[in-house]
Amino acid sequence: MAKEDIFYWQALNRALDAEMAGDDSVFILGEDVGLYGGSYRVTEGLYAKYGPLRVRDTPISETSFTGLGVGAAMTGMRPVVEIMTINFALLALDPLVNMAAKIPFMSGGQFPMPLVVRMPGGVAKQLGAQHSQRLEHTLMNVPGLRIAVPATPQDAYWQLRQAIASDDPIILIEHDLLYFSKGALDVEAVPLPMHRAAVCRAGRDVTLVSYSRNVELCLRAAQQLADERIEAEVIDLRSLSPIDWETCVTSVEKTHRLIVVEEDCRFAGAGAEVAATLSERCFFSLDAPAKRVAALDIPTPFNGSLESASIPTVKDVISAAQQLCSVADPGVKP
Amino acid sequence: MDRDTLRAFLRDMLLARAFEEAAAEQYTKGNIAGFLHLYPGEEAVAVGVIHATEPSDYVVSTYREHVHALVRGTPPRQVMAELFGRRDGISRGMGGSMHLFDRERRFMGGYAIVGETYPVAIGVGYAIAMRGLPEVAICFFGDGAVNQGTFHESLNMAALWRLPVLFVCENNHYQIGTEIHRHSAVTEVFRRAAAYDIPAERVDGMDVFKVHEVTSRMLREIRTGGGPRLVECETYRLRGHSMADPGSYRPQIEVRAYASTDPVSMAVRETVPAYPSHEQLTVVGKDAIHHATEHGLGAGHLDSAEVDGIKSEVQQLVQEAVEFAQQSPDPEMADAWQCLHVNRRNESLT
Ligand SMILES: Cc1ncc(C[n+]2csc(CCOP(=O)(O)OP(=O)(O)O)c2C)c(N)n1
Q1: In what residue span(s) does the Transketolase-like pyrimidine-binding domain sit (chain A) (predicted)?
Q2: What is the pTM of this model?
């Protein structure tokens, strides 16, 4: 029962509402999260319901309000900090990297860090280079932080609830263009563990590993590849730290080919880690070196067509798969 | 000032001094490595402020925090073992000198990044406000730290939401080697609080009684809903910034002039570099411990045998702390992984 089609932002909103109703120590803070209702409507209605102490509009002080979340979490509160976009999270890197990720460790395990930091990330539509970044790689390199990248309303709901309930510091990167995408939400379904990858489509010829908005890209590519008798298996990582290697390894051992699809810049991006680790782990199963389909190593251009050309498209994924399949096994006709 | 309080102040200041001198010695011997920032000279601030707090208050500190932890009640042996990086250290050897944490005593950590203490403190203050408790977050920071953006961001939020936070500036006039007149346009730190309508005062940070009196009053005001307060304690460190710093940038004449801000002594500061010795500073009579002892003796609260008694008591405590640290084992890699994954109750996520 209870299955309905809703927007991604609504799923996040419901997750917040459910957690706030169940636990007084959960509170939200960020710019315009209160009276205004959140830049992407995620906190809509919560200010009216829970009041200004629990849904706090902050000044434009990313470093300090994120650090405020750290301090509050140390006393056992469960803050959910919203940073307007991942681009501004650069100003909050100190509390994220030097504090949230380090305090549980540096204190010898004395202080849990039940902090959640949510932020949109990715390339939206013509927002210019300062508003169109994918900084997941920057955060992935920090031991002690967990990163969830929900791609669907169902995962947005599950993972946000799980993140709030967890004592780890967890960052949710929500893609700008996903907020107004629709999908099924079943609030009663048994959730997957937050860090577990999901096989979204089964296949035998090539594994497409992706996350966030690019999962949809891969599914569309897989659909078209099927017409050419290339069966692609699509994996949604769901979590970038930790990564569920088992699910990926199992798939690559079946398909013998790997393509990592990401919107991150290619150089030292998230996909580099995935490709390198799976190359190590699956060396004897791979028929060809792992391939990466990623964004160009360029600040996102403002011009619309250049912007689109700077990030992966369905076509890019298809041609990578065609290439890989023909190189690795001439028997599979592209 | 009653006799017991005076005695407690003096005892903690002497313990602090003995502890830090022992730490310096252990550093020289190679038992302590890394950055070691010592506190001699500034004892009156830690003692005056922390003695005014309740056990239910929270203390957020910097990398020069050994004495804050000691005065808060963390056993010297656990502090020393942490400086040694050993398993029985208060942070299990994962934190070191700059990262002492003591959950039991609400000691919320030493932070090595200048300017980090403010957001943590307003976060603790926010949590207190949400729970409606009569507690206060004490936020220590140096004069150099007031030029970090977080100072302004956090004071703004603290004032805006009337958070129960006491900001304590330990103005020792130096940001490593840069004297306050060379790092701050406004050298009277307390005046900056006016920008956020936070009541603030400057006190003689060499006078433990004054520090205690002013902070006690401010804490009362905060507890009764008055919002944040800032106290600037003017003090002086007798050693270099850290063990790696001999402090050669400080002129002899400063011994006599450090409390003064007149242009002549400023000019002299620039031209005569030589670090004043402990003895020279003591002679001037500005050393807080010297000052408090004189007061106790002069007012007839203490006799010199009693002072000697306290001295040998703390010496013994510190000696014992060093032995404890020496005997404590190194932590193992498994301990480190456990500390990293403690939030997951050590469930491994693969
Ligand atoms: C953000 C940052 N920048 C620089 C440093 C290097 N640093 C360590 S201590 C220090 C001076 C701080 O002086 P102050 O705040 O006055 O404290 P004091 O050492 O005098 O107690 C500096 C620059 C640092 N730790 N963090």
Answers
A1: 6-181
A2: 0.92
Closest-CA distance, B277 to chain A, in angstroms, reads 35
Q: Which of A53, A68, A103, A243 to mutate to test the interface with B (most CBs of B within 10 A)?
A: A68
CB pair distance less than 8 Å for B120 and A70: yes
Q: Three-state SS across B236-271?
A: CCCCCCCCCCCCCCCCCCHHHHCCCCCHHHHHHHHH
The per-residue pLDDT for B2 is 84
Residue B31 near residue B84, CB atoms below 8 Å: yes
| Known catalytic membership, residue A136 | no
Q: What is the pLDDT of residue B268?
A: 42
Secondary structure tally for chain B: helices H, strands E: 15, 8
CB contact under 8 A, B126 and A143: no
Ligand 1 nearest atom to the CA of residue B175, by list position: 13
> Could you identify the residue written with the tokens 């006190």?
B203
Quickly count: other Cβ atoms within 10 Å of residue B134's Cβ: 14
As a whole number, the mean pLDDT across chain B is 89
- Non-local (6+) Cβ contacts of B350 within 8 A are A242, A244, A245, A246
ipTM of this predicted structure: 0.90
A315-329 in b/e form (b: 16+ CB < 10 A) is ebbbebbbebbeebe
Asked if A225 and A232 touch (Cβ cutoff 8 Å), the reply is yes
Residues of chain A found within 8 Å of residue B84, distances taken between Cβ atoms: none
Domains of chain A: which residue ranges?
Answer: 4-185, 198-326
Q: Do A198-326 and A4-185 fall under one CATH topology?
A: yes
Domain A198-326 has CATH 1.20.810.10: no
Provide the greatest CA pair distance for chain A.
64
- A168 and B160 in contact by Cβ < 8 A? no
**Tens-digit pLDDT profile for residues B235-269:** 988 888 998 877 766 665 554 444 343 343 444 44
Asked if residue B64 has its Cβ within 6 Å of ligand 1, the reply is yes
Q: Which of B66, B114, B169, B258 to mutate to test the pocket of ligand 1 (most atoms within 8 A of CB)?
A: B114
Q: Look up the CATH superfamily of B3-272+282-337.
A: Thiamin diphosphate (ThDP)-binding fold, Pyr/PP domains (3.40.50.970)
* Domain A4-185: CATH architecture, name and number where available: 3-Layer(aba) Sandwich (3.40)
Is the CB–ligand 1 distance for residue B144 below 6 Å? yes
Q: What is the CA radius of gyration of chain A?
A: 20
- Name which residue leads in pLDDT, B121 or B271: B121
Instruction: Please give the Cα distance from B23 to B197 (Å, whole number).
Output: 40
- Any A CB within 8 A of B87 CB: no
Q: Is A48 on the interface with B (CB under 8 A)?
A: no
- Terminal Cα-to-Cα distance of chain B (whole angstroms): 61
> What is the number of other CB atoms lying within 10 angstroms of the CB of residue B185?
7
